[in-house]
Structure formats: C-alpha cells, structure tokens
Design a protein that fits this description.
Rossmann fold, homodimer, 2 domains, four-stranded parallel beta sheet, alpha/beta
C-alpha cells in the first residue's frame, strides 16, 4: 500500500447521468470499492445476505443507528438502509478507495461522520435539458418527472458545500472532470502520510 | 466569464522539476497569469518598470509591507520582493487564474492572505534522486548542492498543510497529477458561484 484510501462521495439529482459516470469510473478504476449496506427490507429473489446486503431486523437496525454504527442511513418507502462506518474506515486504512453513491441527505451525514471524504456534486446543465433527459429515458410518468425536477432544485441547494461541482453537459467532459477530482482527492497529504514520512526520513 | 479565477500556489525544493512542470502548465493553459512583483533591487539591463517588476525604493516597499499590501514578500540577498494582493484579487474576480511559483515561506503568507488559494507541493522521489538531479544539471558547486539538499528536507516539512502532493518521479505522471489538481481546484463551488446561482434560478 502506498497511500491511505479515500472516500469519494457522489451526489446528483435523478437523471443527471450519475449512474453512467459511476460506471465509467468503476470501469477505469476497478479497485474502487463499495461497502455493503444494511437494510431492513426483505431479501429479493437471489439476494445473498452479507453479499448484496446485510439484512437486519428493524429493531437491530434502529439499535445500530442509535449506536452511531452507520456512516449514513435513510428510510425509503418504510424500509431502512444504512452504510456501516467501521468497514469503510477499515478499507480506507488498507489503502482502498470507497465510493459512496448517495443523495444529499446521506452525503451530509457522511460529512459529519467521515469529514475527510471528498464530495463531488454532479449537476445537470439546466432545467430544460434535465427535463428532456428524464423524458428521453422513458422510465417515468409525467407526474414522477415533475417530482424529480422539483427535487433536483432542492438537492442542488446543497451543492455549495461539496468539494467539486461537475456539470454533466457533455459526458466525456464531465467524466474528465470527475476523474481529475478523484485523482486530486488521492493527492491530499492525509492520504500520503506514509510516503511523506518516509521522504522526510530519507532527508533527515 | 463562466467562473471566478483560482490562485494556484506551487512550491517545491530546488531541483524537483518545478520550473519544467510550470512551463508545461503554462504551455497548455496560456490563460494562467502571473502577477507583476515589486522589488527594491535595481532594474537590470532591459528590464521595464511595470512590466518585469514594479521597482520601488526600500522605504516605499517597507511602507507597503506594513500596510499589508503584499500577498507575500521576502528578503533575498538584501533585496525585498513582494506580490501585491489587490491586482491578484482583481484578476480572480475577472475569472483569471493566477499562478504563484513561490517557496514555503511565501506560500504560508498566501495561505493567510488568500486562504481560498489551492496549494500544490511538488516533491522529489527521494534524497538520492534529488542529489543526482542537482549534480546532473551542473549549475551548482558541491557546497551549494549540499545546502539545497538540507533546505529541501526543511521545506518538505511544510508539505503537510498543502492541498495536494505531487511526487515528480516520472515527469509525465507528475504533470498529469498537477494538471488534475489545477482542474479540480477550478471545480470548487467558490469558483462556480455564478453558474450555481443561475442553475438554481433555472430550477426555481
């Protein structure tokens, strides 16, 4: 291991192209880890406990939450989801980079619990373009699209405290920026403590 | 102008390859500005006041220094040198990026006077390699090389508070890291205030 790992947090309004960008990043950097989340929802066909998710009872989840076990957690449609903090810290110590693909509420919690993480907000180029993309992908009803657009406006108000803003105007340009941000995050002295210490000893 | 400018501060021990890296950066990004420094030394043959330097009397320089006119200043071989802060702030407001190619003492002052600057420290891969490079360039006596190596060790102790550490092991790799750091610095929300405001209005 030549450095500590970094936690890279990506947030984006729905339809902004985050999934595509994350896919490109993981293809170029297969060493980027996800941590396994905990959830209180029932396993779906084929899902394996401890691999896809840690499936927990509601009681267990809420107890762990109170014990500050999670880097971030959320309730979605009555089910709880959370990312355990300790395994993330362990991966970082081992020099593995960990990707958080989470919404602004989750990112805010990670900022509290893992302040050394690097936060990237992916933005749409504008309202009309996001609406066009949400229609073009053909996944949602008009009502759902309206809700997504309204949420996008709310979520983007949080962008101001992120470390880097990446506008997804052209995919290749947005990816180049995201890639630069990831690479730069790994250059922080807190990731290079051992290298710096060895270098200072070399010059002592 | 689509964003505010950033102040990019580069420091490196002598012989680390900073001049080469700065040259590559300025070739790829000709819009990167230097500000004109003030000095108390006499103009050399062909140097133009207000273009190469602002040539000031010692009295004037010291008064300006006391008035906190400089982003950073230093005394070198009995002459004073300083970078005026106001023109830098003006360039940043106009969306122009400003490069500071300065030592750790100067960088520390910029950190105080322009805390939003982005600080990159360029490091040699090790003691023996730096010694080899200093000999290979054939500019210095053995005595001067010894002093440079000793200074390098002292300067690198400051690297810990910089934003990014770039080891110049292979020039192309080091340049790619420096380039990523520069690009990422420009993605900070404080550089993209207008864009973000416009986008939020678009979604309001």
């Amino acid at each position: 291991m030549d450095r500590q790992g970094i936690a890279l947090v990506l947030s984006a309004p729905s339809g902004t192209g985050k999934t595509t960008l994350v896919g490109m990043l993981r293809e170029e950097f297969p060493q980027l880890c996800y941590s396994i989340s905990c959830t209180t929802r029932a396993p779906r066909q084929g899902e394996v406990d401890g691999k896809d998710y840690h499936f927990l009872s509601r009681e267990k989840f809420l107890r762990l939450k109170d014990e500050r076990y999670f880097a971030e957690w959320a309730e979605v449609h009555g089910n709880f989801y959370g990312t355990p903090l300790a395994p993330v810290r362990e991966m970082l110590e081992q020099g593995r980079d960990v990707l958080f693909d989470i919404d602004v509420q989750g990112a805010r919690q990670v900022k509290q619990n893992l302040p050394e993480a690097f936060f990237v907000f992916i933005l749409p180029p504008g309202f009309e373009e996001l609406r066009r993309r949400l229609h073009a992908r053909g996944l949602d009803s008009e009502e759902v699209i309206q809700r997504r657009l309204a949420n996008a406006g709310k979520e983007m108000k949080e962008a101001v405290w992120y470390d880097a803003l990446v506008v997804n105007d052209r995919l290749e340009d947005a990816y180049a920026r995201l890639r630069a941000a990831y690479q730069t995050a790994t250059l922080a002295p807190r990731c290079r403590r051992q290298m710096l210490r060895a270098l200072l000893e070399d010059f002592a």
